[in-house]
Amino acid sequence: MKKDSIFKFGKIILSLKNFNNFFKNRNNKNKKLKTSFARNIAKLEKYKNLIEKFNQFKTDEFKSKKSKKTKNVKEKFPIIQNLNFKSKLESKINKLKVKNFNKILFNNLKYFVKAKNLQLLKINKTNKIKNKYSQKIGIIFYGEHNLILLSSTINHNNQINIIGVTEMPIPTNVIGDTLVEDSNELANILLDSINLLDLSDSPLLVILSSSFFNIHTFLVSDLKQISANDSKVKSKSPYLPANTIIDFLRISDKKLPEGLIRTTYSKQDFINSWTDTLQIIDQPIIGLVPAAPHIFDSITSQITEETTFLIDIESTTTTLLIGSKYTALQSHKLPFGFSLYISDNLEESNKNYFERVLNSIQIIINDSNHKLPKNIFVMGSGLDKLINKEASLPKRFKSILDLNLSEYTYLPQKMSVHELVSNTINSNIYCLASILSSCL
Known about the structure:
Layout: H1 19-28, H2 35-42, H3 48-68, H4 73-76, H5 103-106, E1 134-143, E2 146-155, E3 159-169, H6 183-196, E4 204-208, E5 214-219, H7 231-235, E6 244-251, E7 260-267, H8 268-281, E8 285-290, H9 292-300, E9 308-313, E10 318-324, E11 327-334, H10 346-366, E12 376-379, H11 382-386, E13 397-399, E14 407-410, E15 418-419, H12 426-439
Parallel strand pairs: 1-4, 3-14, 3-15, 4-8, 9-12, 12-13
Antiparallel strand pairs: 1-2, 2-3, 5-7, 6-7, 9-10, 10-11
Helix pairs in contact: 3-6, 6-8
């Protein structure tokens, strides 16, 4: 593949290249105070001044730490050159020996960070994984001013155990509608939760809301070059050209008459604001990924349909994905979410929301050759807000919770840390476990 056809925005694996050194160095670092301690002493009035000084110290510490970081993000996350999907992966990994780990690099719109001399992972297939081995992994999910952080373990059979959960609202002065406004404060919040969940020595998987991304698929023959500079690629971006970051995924299979290029668009300043935050946290990052496409690919790997429809329900938006395993995948943004329909009568709220979704889908497919499938799959936080025992999904809609996308355990009553602001986040837990399973 020619150099000018190489994917410019490839995969981000932050400091994952040398786990042995990482863990050794971690033991020598000063441990930060956990939020549980801070929260307890904050209740005492006599510690008020101490808490104020402690918070100021943490802010100053992060500012000082950030100033010592490389000012140019490109030096930290340089551009990967000559990256060929499923090519030779150079480097060693001794700690994270999870089954199918190489899927991290090749499974769907991945890591929106400029990279140049990034050391890629190499899986040593000759090393057998011990049956009792499990790896602790932190999962960060952000969407619509709500942050969820999970502590989980995963074993060689891809069985996931959720062992701790925190959920918190994020104010707009920390994360706005379009980007992270205060990377230091967000890093401070994340580090408090990381310490609380005992994830200081664990790699992190960062999952961002589907609403921050747009997807379009091209035939390979339609593009002059697989590049963000291609005129057809540019024409499908919903963002300003100077503020667009693009990731490409080549899809090829014997059943495809020709290859497909799945193209994912996001705002560059939004992605950069998150990578700035991750630099401050300074822990190994498995990846920075959007939510819905991984769930979509997991569904199509199990369900055989001519066309698959998936909706991701959020508070103010609904993301619709239409495609199949061997055809183009497209995303559509519906300008409404569950919050517009929430009322005291949940059954009525449920009915009104899904009627509008169905009407919107019908309008979209009227201009294409698609037909309504037997099932429209549903994911997202809206499942917890619109569905209960009295108000089930209407005909044609099917929850992804009814599919076996991942094997996981989630027992809140047995967790030492389980702090929520929502009544339930069961559907989000299922989605995050499924995404982790698809990445590893």
